[in-house]
Amino acid sequence: MKIDSYGFGRIVVGGKAYTRDLIIYPEKVEAHWWRKEGHLLQLEDLQGVIRYRPQTIVVGTGANGLMRVAPQTREAIKALGIGFISKPTEEACRIYNEISSLERVVACLHLTC
Predict the structure, then answer these.
(1) Cα four-point dihedral sign 99, 104, 74, 96
(2) What are the residue boundaries of the structural domains of the chain, listed by start?
(3) Three-point CA angle 104, 109, 111, nearest 5°
(4) For residue 89, what pLDDT band results from cuts at 50, 70 and 90?
(5) Distance CA 73, CA 67 (A)
(6) In angstroms, what CA-CA distances link 42 with 5, 67, 98, 99?
(7) Rounded Cα–Cα distance for residues 86 and 106 (Å)
(8) In the CATH scheme, what is the code of domain 3-110?
(9) Assign residue 66 a region: left if phi > 0, alpha if psi is -120 to 50, beta otherwise?
(10) pLDDT tens-place string over residues 11-26
(11) What pTM value is reported for the model?
């Protein structure tokens, strides 16, 4: 799946528009992704992604990068041997598109803030 475009609060993936946070797997989109604490990404928020066993997880922290990643989350993902990239969402989308054809990658994207 490719990200066609991203703007504050709206993303187009594979020709379909979404207006809520989402997770992009190579073969599907999980719409309406939400975290236990909205602006703090914790390990439990990524359990389905971890079970999927991607090579890399790309996290979009919002248009202004306001969603934080708990340090324990980053450490636990890396301890599992999974690459972890966390950037403001526009940059995360660009990175996801660049590497998605090269490896098994999942994008977890916060669309606002």
Answers:
(1) positive
(2) 3-110
(3) 155
(4) very high
(5) 13
(6) 27, 11, 26, 24
(7) 12
(8) 3.40.1230.10
(9) alpha
(10) 999 999 999 999 999 9
(11) 0.96
